[in-house]
Each structure stands twice: as C-alpha cells, then as structure tokens.
Design goal:
Layout: E1 8-11, E2 34-39, H1 41-44, E3 48-52, E4 60-62, E5 83-90, H2 97-103, E6 112-116, E7 123-125, H3 127-134, E8 140-144, E9 147-149, H4 156-163, E10 167-170, H5 174-177, E11 185-190, E12 198-207
Parallel strand pairs: 5-6, 6-8, 7-9, 8-10
Antiparallel strand pairs: 1-12, 2-3, 4-10, 4-12, 5-11, 11-12
Helix pairs in contact: 2-3
Length: 211
C-alpha cells in the first residue's frame, strides 16, 4: 500500500473480528472477543457498538505487569518510545550467544528492537543470549513469531522481558512482517489504557520500497 511518495506503508495488525485467535490452554482462556450493536442510526440517529475483549486481544502491546506482579503498567511507557527507527534482528531457529552478538554487531541508536523468527517455526535461544539482548538500549521490542529459551520453563522469555522493564508488541500479521526490511520506522499505537498489563495495538511500518 503506497501512501507517501518514496515510502511504503505496511500494516502488521491482525484484523479483530470473530475469527481472531484467542489465547487458551486446557485450564485457561483469555476473554472472548464480542461485538454487538448497542444502538442504531434508526433508533438514535447514530450507531454505537458494544465491545468485549481482553487487553491481549489480537496484535497487542504487553507491559512488564503482564508477567511481573510488581511491574510497570502500560501508561508508564512514554509515547516517544512507540514511534521510531527499529533494528531488525532475524533470528534463526536455533541461536547461540555468538550468533546473537554477531547479528547485533551493527546496532546503532535505534529505539526499537524488531525480532523476526522463521515463518514456519519458532526461535530457541540460550538464556545468556536473551540476557545479552536485554542489555541493549531499546525499551520496546516488536516480536514477530515465537521465542523460547532452551532448557527453561515456558514463560521464561516473557518473564525476563518483564523483569528487565521491557515492553513488547506481539501477535503480528506474520506474512506482512516478512516484507519488512532494515532501516524503516515503526509506529506502535495502543489504546491509552491506564493501569493495565497491555492493550490492543495498531502497528504500522514505513519503509522505502526494496530495489
């Protein structure tokens, strides 16, 4: 979608409708998404819909409070950190600390870390590689796909992010995310909720078309 001369705008946001995938396990489920008419143009002269959804519905941002009972909530992140240049880190299916440090050798002053995993699988990292990444400056991570930590409990990746005070955006539209290339800008715009562990988020990338 071409919006600005010389730039390409990519929307990484999953549409939210009744087909949206809701996180669930054998013993837990996030709130379902529901949308129903509250009033109609015929009745009131305007239309309003009533929504029910969770803070992690669809493409969303997570605050440290999502995995840390004492972590910061959404409003603690300055809007200045939600827009800016990103460093694109393409992780392999299995990485090492040496792999990660080499891939990050060219990181400069980008304010957002964009992690992309292989399209058909997740990425598995050792804990020391994750700790290295957490020491990088960007307070906001955008994660396309799934990252696990070798020989660690299920939520270790997220718990370590929360412990480090990072915020992260996830559940992107994966096919569109494959079109992202380095040196672009990202706009991650959540609802301005207060006191929550996250919010649905519109995520756009502006980049120059590949030659």
């Amino acid at each position: 979608m071409q919006e600005n001369p010389g730039f390409q705008i990519l929307d990484l946001t999953k549409p939210i409708d009744t087909a949206i995938e809701i996180y669930a396990t054998a013993t837990y489920s996030d709130p379902p998404f529901e949308c129903q008419e509250w009033c109609s143009v015929n009745d009131q002269g305007f239309r309003v819909s009533e929504l029910r959804l969770g803070t992690q519905t669809g493409t969303h941002i997570d605050a440290p409070a999502h995995f840390d009972a004492h972590g910061a909530t959404l409003e603690a992140l300055s809007p200045a950190h939600l827009i800016g240049r990103y460093f694109l880190l393409d992780l392999p299916a299995y990485g090492t600390i040496e792999t990660v440090t080499t891939l990050c050798s060219s990181i400069a002053d980008e304010g957002i870390l964009f992690i992309r995993t292989p399209l058909q699988t997740s990425s598995c990292l050792p804990l020391d590689a994750l700790i290295y990444l957490l020491q990088l400056a960007p307070p906001l991570w955008v994660v396309d796909g799934s990252v696990t930590i070798a020989d660690a409990p299920e939520f270790t990746f997220y718990q370590q992010l929360a412990k480090a005070g990072k915020y992260w955006v996830e559940d992107l539209d994966r096919p569109t995310a494959q079109k992202i290339h380095p040196n672009g800008e990202i706009f991650a715009l959540p609802l301005a909720l207060v006191g929550t562990s996250g919010a649905p988020c519109r995520v756009l990338v502006r980049q120059k078309p590949s030659s």
